[in-house]
């Protein structure tokens, strides 16, 4: 029951406010001749989703009180009719009325006024001027309501919205200037409160401007400039105490009003009743909650809060930079420690010496001919032992056929010697393999620790410089968005580095995909900007759109594949990944052979490459680590790897090849060959990739393929001629045609798995 009473009380208060507002606007005029403002406010409030069943009665009652005549009542009813009928039609059709529709119906609503004014003998231009002024006033009200009622106190007003707010204040002042109860001035009551609010919540310039606007509004309505000077003097007095508590602003206002009235005698009369409006407004201002004043301050001057936020952001970057630097040093120290724990293996000469001593201690120490063999024939005996150990180490086994005849004729322990050599050599080879695997594992861990250290060091350098925010561009973007009907509640523009400007805007969900966002931000930032990502804001109904300086180039690519005839799966795997810093990686991994085993090899290689590049490791470390990992695998996993990394920002491309076929860069002038080299990944740990850097231009084609394509042609010249002869400009069609021609070389038979990637370079 209490809830219902409170609701009805709230509606009653709304009705009273609307009634008072419409009555004031009915009285507002231009030189007491044109009264164009009330209908504009009616349509604007309806557009701002205020309750029509409250607005219409308040408008009718206010109009009847203002001018209780039959003609004016008809004009009011026509105005209301032109609002209610289309409004409810749109509700039934479940469609929102657009601004231009409100403008059209508001013009139609004044037909009765125009007819009665012309029939009454009024100069025919004045009614049409009244309609134009009313429609302009309606748009001004819409701008302000959109900023305050719809968006709320969340963002700074744009220049257009501030001008619109000033026009509303001037219009209200015009209406209040003739509404006095004897000598009690409602104009002074309204303006003293507004000026206190502006002086406390906005900038000094806006306070002086609104004081002037209030006086000019009264001047336009009454041709009386009386209030211009007092209002400006009030504003100046308040601003002297802006930095102090509110009570000092109130005291200064009252004192100045007393001085103006009693000493300078700017008013026709002055007494207790004349000063009462200022006292009432001062009391109301002091009763305003600080939280409300803070919210109002946001729409006039957001720079202080934003400055604090930006300082916090830079401070957090400094703290993060320090922590990243320390972590980078920790991981680098761990890398050094792991490398020091690696065991170094003995040379083969040392191995021979150790094995000889072991055999002599085990076999020859109990032989009666020991002194004869190792003293009289010491050199020849040592030479035989060295030779046998070498044969066993290289071949895996030594036999009687490998022992010289002069040794077998005098030595009765040849069988024992052969068994010991084979056993000890096998044990040593197993030990060496285990030690090598352990050392390789340690080296992999050390390299990863080094890679993490480098990544953190790079992040540390990136965090070293403070972010440079650009408030001027932010305000311009807000203004441009408002002009293009894009509701934006926050904008941040900053320089990410010397070449990159980044921007983040928070807009309504329905505005987040508008192409105009990129156009506006690009125009203000004076460079081409591109959307990088979009995600939901913490405020419901709004999205965060991030943009940054667009790269110079873009890539369009096509891929074509064919599995080897008779094979169920392809041993070729490709990857196309967008990396950080405007780079794209194109890669083909060709597992040795075909079928499921080759597929597993290529998928494992390409997956490792893709994830390492995404993490930010550099080329050498990535390929070295993957090579060691594959060589440790129980199964033999060999893969040819072809990587092409295109830097869209500066037009550079890196080719990284391990046993892959040649690649080509095709343009209108030439077909440039990218050579190949190195062993496949996983065969030996120390295989070094072939790395080549090239400069690319717009309309260049980059062609990568597996050996199933290259082996289909007789030689490189035939393949190159085929590439040159393909005339299509579409990369997908290019890839398909190259694959078809390779198949045609073998009568349509795929002798191996075949993959083609064609990349076309374009302007962004």
Give the helix/strand class.
alpha+beta
For the terminal residues, how far apart are their CA atoms? 64 Å
Number of strands: 17
Task: Tell me the Rg in angstroms.
Answer: 43 Å
CATH class of the largest domain: Alpha Beta
The CATH architecture name of the largest domain reads 4-Layer Sandwich
Relative helix content = 55-70%
The spatial strand order of the largest sheet comes to 3-4-5-7-6
At the third CATH level, what is the topology name of the largest domain?
Answer: Phosphatase 2c, domain 1
Q: Number of helical runs?
A: 27
- Shape summary: elongated
Q: Unreliable stretches, pLDDT < 50, 5 or more residues?
A: none
The pLDDT mean sits at 78
Give the biggest beta sheet: 5 strands, antiparallel
The percent range for strand residues is 5-15%
According to CATH, the homologous superfamily of the largest domain is PPM-type phosphatase domain
